[in-house]
Amino acid sequence: MNRxxxxxxxxxAIKDASGxxxxxxxxxRPVGRPVTAEALSVAGLSGITLYEPGALTLVAKAGTPxxxxxxxxxxxxxxxxxxxxDFRAVLGTTGTPTIxxxxxxxVSGPRRIAVGACRDFLLGVRFVDxxxxxxxxxxxxxxxxxxxxxxxxxxxxxxxxxxxxEVSLKVLPNVEAxxxxxxxxxxxxxxxxxxxxxLGSPFEVTGAARCGTxxxxxxxxxxxxxxxxxxMLQSRLKLFGSADLITDAQTHAKIWLNIRDMTEFxxxxxxxxxxxxxxxxxAFIQMMQQMHSFDYALDWGGGLVWAAAKTGTGDLEALHTxxxxxxxxxxxxxxxxxxxxxxxxxxPAFQPEHPSIAAITxxxxxxxxxxxxxxxxxxx
Amino acid sequence: xxxxxxxxxxxRGAVIHAESETRAYECDGLSAYRCPPLxxxxxxxxxxxxxxxxxxxxxxxxxxxxGAGTSLAGGAMxxxxxxxxxxxxxxxxxxxxxxxxxxxxxTGRTNLSITGAVEADGFFYAPDPSSQLxxxxxxxxxxxxxGAHCLKYGVTxxxxxxxxxxxxxxxxxxxxxxxLDAGGLDLLGVICGSEGQLGVVTEATLRILxxxxxxxxxxxxxxxxxxxxxxxxxxxxxxxxxxxxEFMDRPCIEVCEAFxxxxxxxxxxxxxxxVEGSNLEIDEQLDLIKAxxxxxxxxxxxxxxxxxxxxRIWLGRKSAFGAxxxxxxxxxxxxxIPVSELPYVLRRxxxxxxxxxxxxxxxxxxxxxxxxxxILYNANIPGQLETCEALGAEILKLCxxxxxxxxxxxxxxxxxxxxxxxxxxxxxxxxxMAVKDVFDPAWLLNPAKVFxxxxxxxxxxx
Lengths: 380, 462
What we know:
- The complex is a heterodimer of chains A (380) and B (462).
- With 380 residues, chain A is an alpha+beta fold.
- Chain A folds into three domains: 2-173, 2-Layer Sandwich (Uridine Diphospho-n-acetylenolpyruvylglucosamine Reductase, domain 3); 177-261, Alpha-Beta Plaits (2-Layer Sandwich), CATH 3.30.70; 263-346, Alpha-Beta Plaits.
- In chain A, 34% of the residues lie in helices and 25% in strands.
- Chain A contains 14 helices and 18 strands.
- Chain A has helices at residues 7-15, 66-75, 88-91, 99-104, 112-115, 118-121, 150-154, 188-199, 223-236, 249-261, 278-291, 316-329, 341-346, 355-368; strands at residues 2-3, 21-24, 38-41, 48-52, 57-61, 78-79, 122-129, 134-138, 162-170, 172-173, 177-184, 205-211, 214-221, 244-246, 270-275, 295-299, 304-309, 333-338.
- In chain A, the strands form five sheets. Chain A has a five-stranded antiparallel sheet with strand order 4-5-9-7-8. Chain A has a four-stranded antiparallel sheet with strand order 12-13-11-14, with helices on both faces.
- In chain A, helix 8 (188-199) runs antiparallel to helix 11.
- Chain B folds into five domains: 2-86, 2-Layer Sandwich (Uridine Diphospho-n-acetylenolpyruvylglucosamine Reductase, domain 2), CATH 3.30.43; 93-210, Uridine Diphospho-n-acetylenolpyruvylglucosamine Reductase, domain 3 (2-Layer Sandwich); 215-249 and 270-314, 2-Layer Sandwich (Alpha-Beta Plaits); 328-417, 2-Layer Sandwich (Alpha-Beta Plaits), CATH 3.30.70.2740; 424-461, no CATH class.
- Chain B is built from 17 helices and 18 strands.
- In chain B, helix 9 (250-260) packs across helix 12 (320-327) and helix 13 runs antiparallel to helix 14 (384-401).
- The longest helix of chain B has 18 residues, at 384-401.
- Chains A and B meet through strand 8, helix 7, strand 10, helix 8 and helix 9 of A and strand 9, helix 7, helix 8, helix 10 and helix 16 of B.
């Protein structure tokens, strides 16, 4: 595999490519339709090029390992607030997650509900398009409306519009304290009602998830504030029963790491991510459960349904089709995150788009990648 | 002819074509440039918008979408051959869900009236551009508008979940909705901030939040802008994320104080830092902020002790533009810079101000580096507008030179289109124009904006 060290080398490799390319960062997230093509890795483009804690800004080359960025941020007591997942455990992959891969997948964890997704923290990009042109958009400042926002377009495009070479991100301060309220044994609709209530309060909940039969609310901030908000939430939500208050740092961190990475589904053969209005989630799950057997967990206050299933407990293809069908009925979308190559080859891993949107998407791909060589077919 | 065709598809009174009436639409907030349009249409529904665009598309007539016409960049400025499509009559709330924390509105609704629709229940819509009383959500989406509180809450794009957009050929598309994040490409992200060049957004789903329990500002005065800048940086580094950090320099303080009598100290730089939460939480944050401020030897450090005092602290800042407008004509820029470059940029602006012979006052969002240099000039003195524009261009080039950008929240419009090559290479701009090619292949929607006229000429005249 080519391990190129400079943006110019990436540009030349794409320009001179004679066939399709599989654009890779750390290769830890094989999401979407498998692409059989020569691999082009940006992992050789590595290093933080600028970090100004006082301006909450970090710029790094696309192949920079996430761990390197997190280490640098920890020193200044800051963090990537969108809480990117590490999918290695659940997908059974090895390798090093890179910041470019995270941006390419718009990978965002539980805190997305409170602070925004990766796309909301992405300030600028440099990338090489399918013709080998180097293009920049955005910059390193927090407010920038100069021209079109291709930054958002690149985020979550999985390398199909261009190979990212550099990204700049807004970072946020780390928190002094954190706590989790755990409500036990609520039924699922009740659990969603509770989470909506908490997220609709002034008490700044930064995580709202349901795992097993636990409903979990996270509160972060200054010590006094966390204690106050935990107290206020407990009394506001007392109709739902009494909650355990978890303040032990290690226990707390472990809870949210598991929710972030969905490690409870590591043994499952297929995993889907369904984005819906929280108020539709209960009906969605109940409708699906009438027809299929699967496990699930909820994040984002019910707005994110993780569905998981094992081979042998049912027809995964039929389950996939039904999940996407019902997500579409509810105006949401469903993406297959984990599945066998066969499953990902025969079925659309990404939610099929309405024809009018598909036409725009195809038009954009034709402009950014006229030869159709960048991760071809991956997002279909 | 176009008027007849438009009248045929719209209700009575929706087409304005008498010269005396189209004149009301000859400019937006950038009033130095004026040009009456061919005619003005004021539809009341997405269906009507689609009908209008279909007619214009068939006849090859350019369309300039318009929200409330408050653009400071000429984003809604007409050309003589264009139809103005104003969404002002489309201002209904279509749905509110506190469970999902969203509101869906027609885009002619004003920014503040979105909060107005939910505030009785304790909710609000966070982005708060200074023009929020008048500006429409349509324009906020077109320009990706920000505001004073976006350090914590983000700008329009971070609070927009879905749109109904009508393309130039009249096709209606729904993108996003009440859920989070796109399934495929983030089209919503590129539509927001595209200055009405990709389609006409007729409906929007917006994120609403519960109001914080309270908010309290603290005012600090410093004897140099370097020190004020260092204080901002230290506050952020300490892990506090205030909801707003506003900065004013001496020329601005003087004018605002004379106008609003807010009791500001006469000093080189003034900061207003506001935090939110319960009283206990506010105390916790402000104690830390005040301790940091004290290490920078402030000439004044005043915490609001009552709602009245808080209002007085904000009064001067909020009336800054009005105060400037009373004594002078002014041009307001909005370039953004990395916060670390603040002292250098302020010094250079001072030098440029002397060189061009025009006063510049600075008032801006310091937390995010979004400058607002106000260049004072007299429109009645021949040549002063031109001098002011030349100085403005120099200041914006300076912003780009230090790693910032031409515009942080107002947009490019006509005002800054010819400066785009200062920030972007021709290939960078090609990539952006390629997006317009996909949404509006005939380049009929708001065509002569955003891009340098020379760069877009072939596409516009094809």
